[in-house]
Amino acid sequence: MVFDCVAAQTNPTFENVIVPLAMQDNEARTDVCLVSLFQYVSEDRDVRIASAEADESIYAHRTELFAREDVYKSVHEIYKNMDNTPALEDEDRRLVALYEQMFRSYGVGLDQIKRERVTEIFKRLTELEIRFMRNISDDHTTILFTREELKGLGHGFIDACETCVDDEKEKIIVPLNHSEYLSVLAYATNSSTRKRMYAAYKTKCPDNIPLLEEAIRLRLEKAQLLGYSTHARLALDGMVAKTPENVLRMLEDLWSKMKKRFQERVDELAVIKEIDAKHAIEPNGELFSWDIGFYLNLNSEFEYGYKASEIEDYFPVKHTVEALLEIFQQMLGVRIIRACAASVWHPDVEAYEVWEKSEPVFLGHFYLDLYARKSKYAGPTMLPIRTGYQKPDGTREYPAAALLTGFTKPTPTRPTLLDHDDLETIVHELGHVFHEICSLTKWSRFHGIRVEHDFSEAPSQMMENWCRDPSVLTRISSHYETGQAIPSDLVQAMVKDKNDGAFVDRMANIFYSLYDMAIHNTTDVANMDVVALYNSMRRDISLFNDGDLHTFGVATDDSFMDNYNAECYCYLWSEVYSADMFASRFLAEGLDNEKTGMDYRREILQPGASRDPLLGLELFLGRKPNSDAFLRLISPPDPDSDLE
């Protein structure tokens, strides 16, 4: 109805064209977010399927609406006359430009045959993406181990797993979830256990491979119909990076600067494996993919004198999350209140209200859904449930967001404990949550994290620095048995170890980003073997060796199927901004400096996507951003390095 009225306008204006479209968008976006949520959190398969099918129908309907030539004509009339409409606010102008671009991205302006094909492709891509994610959530594969085979895993891990009798022996049933997978690879002393776990996890969901291959072909076809040579060129149009050439230049530069030191790091781990031959079943000194996490932990013992399991004891999830929320309260000038009476989708979920600290002004809700369960989305993520916007009467629709992780549930005798990576995960996702909560925009299209993707991770990445600060780690720690804070020598060791180990994560990100460009910035996709390319690039770039295993980890890596396709580089690109913000303001002025925190809230979080994010960054920094802090971050301290 709204689109019909807009199309019928004989004298298009912002008020009779853009405002009706945006108001419908405001109301529909909340419904869409809520409907979509249940495919990620519900234990009921029928509910998950209904949620996914509703999602699919919504996107199909939206595709048809934004392919309407008659509506676009009215929108384009406003767009081309914006310079003659001085009364429009900056956010309104940005909205007009966004709608004009959206209509063009759905094929408006093409001839009818091409436009209809673009619409078909949009619908099919939605189907493929939803089916890909459903295959992952519906996979309930488990693997059986004896207690001896799980040596090195703590009692908390084993007690949280079910058991069975197999071949007249008691076996531990380990689900192939992300959290359990990482734990086994990090702590299991038995190399064959790690190898079995790795092989099982990296061969899940084979049906997803043809879905990805079809999606790659369709994305290229759509891009070329819209006048772009590759899908990556289409995806980067309007991003901060602008072109694939800029992205590839950044990635290749990083790789060239980091690969020597990373090779040295891998060689060090191989030496440790050779020394630790009692735990290895393969030839001494040969390092495999399932060894990396374990020998990084073992290196912590050799080089820094502590075990990773020692850290966990000081970070029980309940105390730690409460302490982290106190940090966000102080930093952003808000009050966080537990909403015990709120309706939730599972008994494990906790709901919270957020208010201004100094006045009775409500800001929004968020929900913590921290523990793994059957069919729940396994990876850590933040999902918007309701977007904020200004209603016609001047009141506000308040935002709501959900934070999902897959931590092992507590047992009657032992709480859920967090390692250093878990701490960063929580803080990172809370960064997204408070981007949603603290955003204050007129239109829902610009609310919260809906900024350009190659900036959207910067606020969350910046918050990870709090988990590398000794004073913060001491403040948020509390031994789960004694209540004592973590000892200062252990804090110093874990911080240094974490900074050294970050090289592994960055090299993995470089691989993902280069692979993403390889499959999306090419026209040679007809016979592309996504698995062979994935495995060869992973081996060459990240130096990980799968030995005699044939794996297809790409089948469960949703980065290439969700809205980060052709945009995996965003994590590295935005890290430049996050490092600059942290070093130039928070590190220089103090992590507890209230003015710095409020400047950050006002210039970075509050505007959402209502203005160019680089403008907010310049206002926060007091200058244009630069890469100095990031280069210091990745530069090794030794003088023989080739990093500059």
Distance between the termini: 59 Å
Please tell me the overall pLDDT. Answer: 92
Q: What's the arrangement of strands in the largest beta sheet?
A: 4-5-6-10-7
Q: Please report the number of helical segments.
A: 25
Taken from the alpha-carbon principal axes, the silhouette is: globular
Gyration radius, rounded: 25 Å
Tell how many strands the DSSP assignment holds: 10
Low-confidence region ranges: 639-644
User: Helix- and strand-based class?
Assistant: alpha+beta
Q: Describe the main β-sheet briefly.
A: 5 strands, mixed
Tell me the fraction of residues in β-strands, as a range. Answer: 5-15%
Helix content: 40-55%
Helix and strand topology:
Elements: H1 2-7, H2 14-41, H3 45-65, H4 69-80, H5 90-105, H6 112-137, E1 142-145, H7 155-159, E2 162-166, E3 169-175, H8 178-187, H9 191-201, H10 208-225, H11 231-236, H12 244-275, H13 292-304, H14 308-312, H15 317-332, E4 334-338, E5 350-356, E6 362-371, E7 381-386, E8 389-390, E9 396-397, E10 400-407, H16 420-438, H17 453-456, H18 458-463, H19 470-476, H20 488-520, H21 530-541, H22 570-589, H23 594-605, H24 613-621, H25 628-634
Helix pairs in contact: 2-3, 3-6, 4-5, 6-10, 8-9, 8-13, 12-13, 12-20, 15-16, 20-21, 22-25, 23-24
